[in-house]
Predict the structure.
Amino acid sequence: MTGKAFLLKYGEIALKGKNRRIFEDVLVRKVKEALAKTDGEFAVSKTRGRIFVEAVSEIDEEETIAALQRVFGIIGICPVVLTDDEGFDALAEKVVAFVDQNFADKHFTFKVDARRARKNYPLRSMEINAAIGEKLLDAFSELSVDVHDPDVLVRIEIRERINFYVRELPGPGGMPIGTNGSAQLLLSGGIDSPVAGYMVAKRGVSVHATYFHAPPYTSERAKQKVVDLAKILSRYLGPVTLHVVNFTDIQMYIYEQCPHDELTIIMRRYMMRIAEHFAKEDGDMGLVTGESIGQVASQTMQSLACTDAVTTMPVYRPLIGFDKQDIIDYAEKIGTYETSILPYEDCCTIFVAKHPVTKPRVERMEKSEKSLAEKIDELYRTAIETTETLVVEE
Ligand code: ATP
Ligand code: MG
């Protein structure tokens, strides 16, 4: 062991009852997967309410923390010193050395907060607080104690082994991926849908994705952009299954047969039908889109009702109440924004009408779709049969 370790804290809310074990086991597995992508080697262990990550090789601390900050379910990451119990004096010495290393300037107030989880330790928590506090004051005269609002909280946990730390970095929160089933994301090259995928994944849902490609109207580069977005998402999601559907013939047929102002909605209805097919194939429990109310004509309440009407699966729209700027802020935070704004064409913008309907009615859409009767079943089947499925990982 190198002495470098991290204490991971996770939320308590979802941990009641028998789900706790499942949640913890998945979280440990996700932590291991995230750490496997770094150059370091680690031992990961779990005790009640805590996960410890210990470096067993030289590590890059920043890289390690960045990897852990992408694991949903973690709320706090504390770089700790993890040590065997070698008596109180040895502990005090180590804490003094640790504070020395971590703070060049010692003009700050502090408080020691010890927890004695192992009751046979000879000193009680309050006694540890007082004794370590005294050692720190003796060692560094610039320090002073403030028990109400300290600048630095020196936390010490006495368990089988002892750990102490002064820093807690935020984790991403949420729940470990896979603890809440899976869903099919309609992933376009835009700003919104990658954020939508991130948000459901954060709640523990494992995400598969479908992209509708319309060559030659959309280029290879437009497809590559979606693959790149899936790669960025894979930092959080793990490997992403991406179905690339060739949508051109369906789109052209709708364009030929249906009123142009209804085009976007009817196209969207076929996207939902095809995404539902892959959702069932992938064992998913719902569809996810990046829509938000009123963002564009195809996202009015009436339009959303028309797209929902073609599927019996729940359609999750995690961005439903977000303003565009909120979504952009999120996209920047998760790292998809720069890729999303690259100027490649999208299959929906090419066929878009000047004045699309904003208040479509389901009955009306069904009627318009009757004019597709001759070929649509075959086109639908072909689209599914010719779909290219990739597994994307960064
Ligand atoms: P974004 O494309 O980032 O989602 P947008 O404002 O461009 O945002 P629309 O083009 O109106 O959104 O699409 C609404 C939703 O439909 C998208 O969020 C996405 O879930 C789905 N969608 C649209 N086009 C495609 C496509 N080519 N492939 C897969 N899904 C798509
Ligand atoms: Mg789009």
